[in-house]
């Protein structure tokens, strides 16, 4: 598994999250200045230098659970609040969108172009804030430095690592279903037409050579697809035509986006249950989370700016209904971290944990030990 | 490592890029598994582990993935590729767990993707193993108590995820969707097929009939008939509908 995958996963999922939030803020008619503040706050938290430093360290991907906790925190980095059901839906949409983009990347290396597409659009959201723009540009440079020199083989490994992360996720998204890029069983449709990847020839030709390397025979055959040559290569520069459309904002038209929970549980039940045997990585995950959180400078809502609640659904009733009917196997079992009085915890960690909101269904069991791992076992 | 008791971690669930391969040797069949942790060999009942080799990650930088990939049997040897480009050659006894790492082949600088073998074709054609890597480089070997590197076929910037060897013909599938056929003795390219619109996932070969199958990430599967020109002896191919 590639240990260079996390930055790509995080930045692209983060980009999708911002696209969706931007669309919902407009759909819910949130005043422009509030909407801008929310996006600015989230983006500046996301691209915080310390945060990025942690992110870019070579490491394994962490679980969907751990990652979701980071995004939940990120989504609440400003004056906006989301209920569980809306946060669940947001995460579903984010993950399915990026899964789609990874699957459809013509070349494994194109996942970098997808990332640049996300960053380009993010820069559009924060045009009036030069400091945040600088942070994003800095991340661009880091991406180029780390990924610019990777071989095709290393990108193939990154691609496989990402696809394993997304394996068995088949949540149906109405926009994908309507556009016929997703089937009713939640599987994506792989197109067999269009331009071939840059560096690939259009299939259909066989060339035969003699011992001197001279071509002696040529045969054409029917490939079955309907491919055309690639027009040009996307740009990997700070500014440039990426050519690839994957990773650009597909929500820019005001389309209500619904997710439909896949009714049959037979596909999901076997995979979403993570092993309940003690996982030596669990401790590492929590440490990683704690370090990431440490890099997030969360601004508490204060002063005259009152907070507001964003709804990912069209009505409050719909949101309530979604919370009640969400299939068991798709629950994210959000990590419930409680403040402890353990003196050995670092000050920073204690401060972070103190700021965490207790999640909707708190499982308070103070008779259990202080150990974070023990608390995880209760879930 | 060796012996019957390799480290087992039943509780840890990690998504792993691994491979499984039945190695058919003259006197026994072994099941070989590779993972990021190492190489395990089982008796053909799938139950008795006879050998465990932990991967040496000593030279790896923190950013390198450590794994084994590519498994093939030739004679009484089993060869397994690794992340560093080294190919580990294990000498397998007729029975029992006394398996020995006999050689580490150096020929590749990038992770091994696949290994192909076939029984030696007689006196003229001595190549019986081909190894492929992430850079697209192919190495052609003759097996034995000491393996000999016969030829190198350079890559061209894309990985070679899959390679097959049949009657002195090397079939290689590449990340750019092409299938190449090379003469194993000379390393010369004789056929180049623009076969797929995405990376080739796998090749498979039916040795009795000389049919090659290619599967690509473009969702297509193609079948090719391999042959030699009666006049020149050069490798030829024809697509099968």
From TrEMBL, chain A:
GO cellular component: cytoplasm; plasma membrane
Any matching Pfam family: Oscp1
Protein name per Swiss-Prot or TrEMBL: Organic solute carrier partner 1
Source organism per UniProt: Rhinopithecus bieti (Black snub-nosed monkey)
UniProtKB/TrEMBL annotation, chain B:
Record's keyword terms, sorted: WD repeat
InterPro entries referenced in this protein's UniProt entry, alphabetically: WD40/YVTN_repeat-like_dom_sf, WD40_repeat_dom_sf, WD40_rpt, WDR54_beta_prop
Source taxon at top rank: Eukaryota
Domain spans labelled WD repeat-containing protein 54 beta-propeller: 11-238
A Pfam family the protein falls into: WDR54
WD repeats mapped onto the chain: 193-227
Gene3D superfamilies: YVTN repeat-like/Quinoprotein amine dehydrogenase (2.130.10.10)
This protein's name: WD repeat domain 54
Protein species of origin: Rhinopithecus bieti
């Amino acid at each position: 598994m590639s240990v260079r995958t996390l930055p790509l996963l995080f930045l692209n999922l983060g980009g999708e999250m911002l696209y969706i939030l931007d669309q919902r803020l407009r759909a819910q008619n949130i005043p422009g200045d509030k909407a801008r503040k929310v996006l600015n706050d989230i983006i500046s938290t996301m691209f915080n230098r310390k945060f990025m430093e942690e992110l870019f360290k070579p490491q394994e991907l962490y679980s969907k659970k751990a990652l979701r906790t980071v995004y939940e925190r990120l989504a609440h980095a400003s004056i906006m609040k989301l209920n569980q059901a809306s946060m669940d839906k947001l995460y579903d949409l984010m993950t399915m969108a990026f899964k789609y983009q990874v699957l459809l990347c013509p070349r494994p290396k194109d996942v970098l172009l997808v990332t640049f597409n996300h960053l380009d659009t993010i820069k559009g959201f924060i045009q009036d804030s030069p400091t945040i723009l600088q942070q994003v540009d800095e991340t661009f440079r880091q991406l180029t430095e780390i990924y610019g020199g990777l071989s095709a083989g290393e990108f193939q490994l990154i691609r496989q690592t990402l696809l394993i992360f997304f394996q068995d996720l088949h949540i149906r998204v109405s926009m994908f279903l309507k556009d016929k890029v997703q089937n009713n069983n939640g599987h994506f449709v792989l197109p067999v037409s269009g331009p071939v990847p840059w560096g690939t020839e259009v299939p259909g030709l066989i060339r035969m050579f003699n011992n001197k390397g001279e071509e002696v025979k040529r045969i054409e055959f029917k490939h079955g697809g309907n491919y055309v040559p690639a027009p040009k290569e996307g740009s990997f520069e700070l500014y440039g035509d990426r050519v690839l459309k994957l990773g650009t904002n597909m929500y820019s038209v005001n389309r209500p986006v619904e997710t439909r929970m896949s009714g049959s549980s037979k596909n999901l039940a076997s995979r979403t249950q993570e092993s309940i045997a003690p996982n030596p990585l669990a401790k590492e995950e929590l440490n990683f989370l704690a370090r990431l959180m440490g890099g997030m400078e969360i601004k508490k809502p204060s002063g005259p700016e009152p907070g507001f609640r964003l709804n990912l659904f069209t009505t409050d009733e719909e949101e309530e209904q979604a919370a009640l009917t969400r299939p068991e196997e798709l629950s994210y079992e959000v990590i419930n971290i409680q403040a402890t009085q353990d003196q050995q915890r670092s000050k920073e960690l204690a401060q972070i944990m103190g700021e965490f909101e207790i999640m909707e269904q708190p499982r308070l069991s103070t008779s259990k030990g202080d150990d974070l791992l023990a608390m995880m076992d209760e879930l | 490592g060796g012996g019957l008791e390799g480290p087992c971690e039943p509780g840890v669930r990690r998504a792993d890029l691994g491979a499984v391969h039945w190695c058919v040797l003259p006197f026994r069949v072994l099941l070989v598994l590779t993972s990021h942790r190492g190489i395990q060999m089982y008796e053909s009942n799938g139950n008795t582990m006879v050998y465990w080799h932990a991967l040496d990650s000593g030279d790896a930088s923190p950013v390198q993935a450590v794994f084994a990939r590519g498994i093939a049997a030739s004679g009484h040897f089993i060869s397994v590729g690794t992340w560093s480009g080294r190919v580990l050659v294990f000498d397998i006894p007729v029975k029992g767990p006394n398996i020995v790492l006999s050689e580490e082949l150096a020929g590749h600088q990038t992770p091994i993707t696949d290994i192909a073998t076939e029984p030696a074709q007689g006196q003229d054609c001595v190549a019986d193993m081909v190894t492929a890597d992430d850079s697209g480089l192919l190495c052609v070997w003759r097996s034995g108590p000491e393996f000999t590197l016969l030829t190198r076929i350079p890559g061209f910037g894309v990985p070679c995820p899959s390679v097959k060897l049949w009657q002195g013909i090397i079939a290689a599938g590449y990340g750019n969707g092409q299938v190449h056929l090379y003469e194993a003795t000379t390393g010369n390219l004789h056929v180049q097929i623009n076969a797929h619109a995405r990376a080739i996932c796998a090749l498979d070969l039916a040795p009795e009939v000389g049919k090659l199958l290619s599967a690509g990430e473009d969702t297509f599967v193609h079948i090719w008939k391999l042959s030699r020109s009666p006049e020149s002896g050069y490798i030829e191919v024809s697509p099968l509908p």
